[in-house]
Amino acid sequence: MIDQYGKRSGKLLSRRGVLRGAIAGVSTIAGSSAMKLWGSEQDDAYEGPLLVTLQLDGGVDVTQLCDPKVNVRGEPKINHWADAADPGQAGNILFAPIADNAQLFQEFGSDMLVINGVDAQTNSHETGRLFNWTGSNAEGRPSLSALFAAAQSPNQPLAYSVFGGTSRTAGLVGYNQFSNLAAARTLVQPYVQSWSGHPWRSTADIARAHSMVQTDISRLLAEPNLSVRQRQSLLGYTEARASRDSLQRLAELIPDEADVMRGEDVNVGGQNFRLNLKEQMQSALLVFKSGLGSAADLALGGFDSHDQHDAVSEALLTHFADAIRFFWDYAETLGIAERIVLMVGSDFGRTNYYNEGDGKDHWPISSYLIMERDAPWGNRVVGLTDELHFGSPINQETLKADRNGVVMTPTHVHKALWEYLGLETFAADRGLTLPDAERLPLFDPFVSSVT
Amino acid sequence: MAATHREASRAEIDALVASLLSSAADAVQHGGWFNSHNHSCATWQIWPDEDLSDEARFARYSDPEGMLRGWGTLVHGVLTSYGYLHD
After folding, report:
1. Which of A145, A365, A399, B44 has its CA at 20 to 30 Å from residue A213's CA atom?
2. CA A63 to CA A354: how far, in whole Å?
């Protein structure tokens, strides 16, 4: 049996819990000490660069996406699709000829950097997610999106929106957790019926209630012997209420119910999936358009296909490709496509063989896709795997195969992204570092691992 | 006035009553029913039976003095106040 960890250590971790349940409602998680539901004193719309991360939750099979592997004589079968087809190619990018991959890579390959052969060094979902989204397999560091939001738009009310995935704030910034646009609508229009658009109460009565609240705050602030903490709490409450007007910018953008993207229920291989990635994308893009935030985490679950792997993988990758098309079309419609970097990743990969249930289990090697409109570093593949999907060492400068080179880990990828996104100084000023790793020129348009 | 563990002062009570009366007076200008075009409280979350006879509907939703709507404003103000939320 081929097994990377079997060869290296004889240790294969058992399967852990799978998908997180859908997030109900809307809640605010304060990574910093102050709640940021309404943000504070920020009236100017944010118009800078934007970052979206998309977690393919459960461990995506990249040999069926952007690191295609055909079967090797004398070895267990890697992919059924390779019985009858060869990998497809779009520009410099090879892809597996299943799902809607051909259309995905032909349409977006020129704006895409494929990073293959990234070793998450684990078969644990939690550790894999942590490593892939923070660049470290130890707790304490922020996820890339949290770091980005803290650097770019720390005072915006919705600086960092989380619809799924792995989010770590490291105390840099709070995040707002949404389930869908309906939750966002309730958040920004608490006095309006979501289904009819009619107000719950008259404008005059809302003003009276606000006046009562303000009078109460004034009275409390005038009380002698207030502690510093009590005064800070009161002022924070006041600022939060005062700044919520900016959320109207989002309220004005939320489309009618008929135009809100809806999730779809899919049954594949005897399993039911609720696919709402487009809804997440629409919500995140509208938050960006409103100028209220700069980073968002999205997730598409179900990739932990220990049974009936091909059916599940193909269905989810089809939805993924469709959603990516929607994402960029909608961003274009909103006029913000040029500002976005989209990063797609997962927990880890899947085994280079099928198990007895025709499923695939956990495998530490995976890939990232980085997308940006008109990216000079697009249409490139960096990082290598061998024919059995083991991570291969690459040269630190040329990124070509080099037996004395390095096998990439998420740390290398995050190091390159910190540099590309201009986060290094911001992180250093806050004492944040990545684990030691070589600097790799992943965004240098003049080098690639495959030409 | 027991929404919080702290007893309201005379001044606070006076301010709340003033808001109640102001809201009620304004409500009367918009008719004598609890729900109207600009005020549609989710009453079905309070009373499960919405299929009422005319008499029962009048008894429940008639608001000739605007006091139902006035108290709605008062409850809104209290339940969103710092004192209540941080009590």
Report:
1. B44
2. 13
In this predicted model, what pLDDT tens digit does every residue of A304-362 receive, in sequence order? 999 999 999 999 999 999 999 999 999 999 999 999 999 999 999 999 999 999 999 99
Backbone dihedral angles phi then psi of residue A69, each to the nearest 5 degrees: -125, 130
Nearest-by-Cβ selection for A208 from B12, B23, B81: B23
Output the six-digit token pair for A59: 């461990």
User: Could you list the residue range(s) of the whole structural domain that residue B78 is in?
Assistant: 12-85
Cβ distance B81 to A202 less than 8 Å, yes or no, reads no
> How many residue pairs from chains A and B have C-beta atoms closer than 8 A?
73
pLDDT at B38: 65
Give the total number of structural domains in chain B.
1
**Which pLDDT does position B46 carry in this prediction?**
82
Distance CA A283, CA A182 (A): 9
Residue A316: CATH number of its domain:
3.40.720.10
Q: Cite the DSSP H helix spans in A189-227.
A: 203-221
Q: Is the pTM of this model over 0.90?
A: no
Task: For residue A97, give the nearest of A107, A89, A87 by alpha carbon.
Answer: A87
Q: Which is nearest to A383 in space by CA: A328, A446, A447, A426?
A: A447
| B81 within some domain | yes
Taking the alpha carbons of A433, A438, A439, A445 in that order, is the dihedral positive or negative? negative
Domain count of the fold of chain A: 1
For A298, A377, A381, A407, A448, the CA distances from A399, given in Å and listed in that order, are 30, 14, 10, 10, 6
A227 touches chain B (CB under 8 A): no
The ipTM of this complex is 0.87
* A243 assigned to some structural domain: no
Assigned domain for B32 exists: yes
CB A376 within 8 A of CB A424: no
Query: Does residue B41 belong to any structural domain of this protein?
Result: yes
CA distances from residue A450 to A102, A177, A352, A392, B86 in whole angstroms, order as listed = 19, 39, 21, 13, 60
Residue A201 lies in a domain: no
Per-window interface: B 46-85 vs A, CB < 8 A:
69, 72-74, 76-78, 80-83, 85
